[in-house]
């Protein structure tokens, strides 16, 4: 499974691809939902690591528009539960991630993205 | 018997047959669990805190299962599709990636609160092709530089591995240092041929008073201390699990059920230590 929590941290690592290489664009995805334990402390601590714009965009592309465009200043319970769902309870099982810069395709099958590079793509 | 990393590349060596033999072997399960607990102790995540961790060379999830058990959220990378497939079957909770760590990571800076790697690093010491990007120093450099950037400041990475010589240790530590890491090597049970374990303990962010921990001594005394500490941790965890219980009762029940269905290996392991009769410390 690729949950949005990991997708939000993942940039392209192909040789020379160092700018505009995030977020990887999700294509032809099949999603799965599964419950996860709600942990507000973890989420609060995780907030600074997130690229908020990328998260909201990606979630919306996947049909979830529960998150506000602007990152709120106060993290109330209602907000944290929505964030929890988007980050940890939705996962991509099939499809691909495409680099917006070099167009490298990372296929996802059975929930596992193939991040292997060809020899000429290794940095 | 030849060491696995000298036999074939990892994704070939850990094919379907070896991957399932490896995962089902109760002796291996126990050793991997033991080393993962020790790595977690060295990782030093604050008591009771849920961390976001990276399991490097996660394989079939023997190490990752313990991260689940300890309540952490994690991602795992491995180059063997057969090992990852078994991890899926075992329903570990981490996000899995098919990735060659010698090619480096693409994780954004500061992504992880820590990283562990159990019995993997020795695989990076052997070149598989003659291409320049596949020389061990090149691969180790890619690995350590991109790992360093993927970790938050301050944090640690604990990598247990099987070096065959001091030169190998030297090569690995010097490349890790150049990549920006502090830290060093911890050797547990240095005088026991069987129990001896080497942990590379890497620190991101100097200054913060991070000191390389002590290795465990060969006498039973120190071993007991380790288990005491784990026992303390487990009691605390059980307590906090109880308070969660009232908040998210359904979730916990479901989880317990899932563990039961899986015939969780952690259960006998837990009881082995929790029920242990102990000699007095002094
Ligand atoms: C002994 S197993 C350990 C697996 C797991 N950490 C455990 O404790 O059971 C070693 C693992 O390292 C993986 N490995 C070896 N070289 C690798 C590489 N270059 N990139 C990613 N994984 C690698 C192998 O595929 C194998 O799953
Ligand atoms: Zn790219």
UniProtKB/TrEMBL annotation, chain A:
A molecular-function term among this protein's GO annotations = protein heterodimerization activity
Tell me where on the tree of life, at the top rank, the source sits: Eukaryota
According to the record's subunit comment, the protein's assembly and interactions are: Interacts with TRM9.
Which Pfam family, giving just one, matches this sequence?
Trm112p
Which family would the database say this protein is a member of?
Answer: Belongs to the TRM112 family.
Q: Which InterPro entries match?
A: Trm112, Trm112-like
Designated name of the protein: Trm112p-domain-containing protein
- GO BP, sorted A to Z: rRNA (guanine-N7)-methylation; tRNA methylation
The protein's matches in SUPFAM superfamilies, at most eight in alphabetical order, are given as: Trm112p-like
Family matches, as CDD domains: Trm112-like
From TrEMBL, chain B:
The record's GO molecular-function terms, alphabetically, read: rRNA (guanine) methyltransferase activity
Q: State the UniProt keywords alphabetically.
A: Cytoplasm, Methyltransferase, Nucleus, S-adenosyl-L-methionine, Transferase
Give all residue intervals belonging to the Methyltransferase type domain. 54-127
> Where are the stretches annotated Disordered?
212-282
Domain of life, per UniProt, equals Eukaryota
Any Gene Ontology biological process: rRNA (guanine-N7)-methylation
Domain annotation 18S rRNA (guanine(1575)-N(7))-methyltransferase Bud23 C-terminal: ranges: 202-280
Put simply, this protein is called S-adenosyl-L-methionine-dependent methyltransferase
Q: Which organism is it from?
A: Pterulicium gracile
Q: What is the lineage of its organism?
A: Eukaryota, Fungi, Dikarya, Basidiomycota, Agaricomycotina
